[in-house]
Amino acid sequence: MNKQYKNIDFQKIDNMVEGDIDFRKQLLEAIEVALIELENSYLIGIKEKSLPVIKQARHKIKPTLGLFDLERLAVVLGNGKRFMQDHGFGDGIEGHKKEFQEAVHAVLEEVKRYR
User: Fold this and answer.
1) Is the torsion defined by CA of 65, 58, 83, 101 positive or negative?
2) How far apart are CA 86 and CA 34, in angstroms?
3) How many Å from the N-terminal Cα to the C-terminal Cα in the chain?
4) Which residues of 79-111 are buried (b: 16+ CB within 10 A; e: fewer)?
5) DSSP sequence for 55-101
6) Are 93 and 46 in contact (CB under 8 A)?
7) Which pLDDT belongs to residue 12?
8) 113: exposed, middle or buried (C-beta count within 10 Å: 0-12, 13-18, 19+)?
9) For the whole model, what pTM was predicted?
10) What does the pLDDT profile of the chain (115 residues) look like in tens digits?
11) What pLDDT is attached to residue 107?
């Protein structure tokens, strides 16, 4: 991935919470939970070689990706979707899995620092 994509747009969160610290905390916790669920489901899908499980995981996180501009993760998921459609779970899936986990953990780290 050559272009630098942002992990998350905290300005969108700040605009949404309008200074409400409790709401910001709840929102950040919800983002963390959604990302952990995504990672767990996605990795199970890869392990079980189940495109339906992966599709469901992607579908569930889609609103969060757009709402908070999780650009890097969105690009990684899109690339993974195309990869698996073209190549299944063969050569290269481990590279995608690593890239996916790095993207998820990068967002989680930024969210933890922002709290």
Assistant:
1) positive
2) 27
3) 28
4) ebeebbeeeebeeebeebbebbeebbebbbeeb
5) HHHHHHHHHHHHHTT-HHHHHHHHHHHHHHHHHTTSTTHHHHHHHHH
6) yes
7) 95
8) exposed
9) 0.93
10) 557 899 999 999 999 999 999 999 999 999 999 999 999 999 999 999 999 999 999 999 999 999 999 999 999 999 999 999 999 999 999 999 999 999 999 999 999 998 8
11) 97
**Hey, what are 30's tokens?**
């919800």
Tokens of 102: 């790095």
Looking at residue 1, its pLDDT comes to 56
User: Which amino acid type is present at position 31?
Assistant: I
Two tokens, residue 1: 């991935």
Contact 12, 34 (CB under 8 A): no
Distance CA 20, CA 17 (A): 5
Unique residue bearing structure tokens 């995981």: 57
Res 3: pLDDT = 76
Q: What is the C-alpha R_g of the chain?
A: 15
The answer to whether 23 and 14 are in contact (CB under 8 A) is no
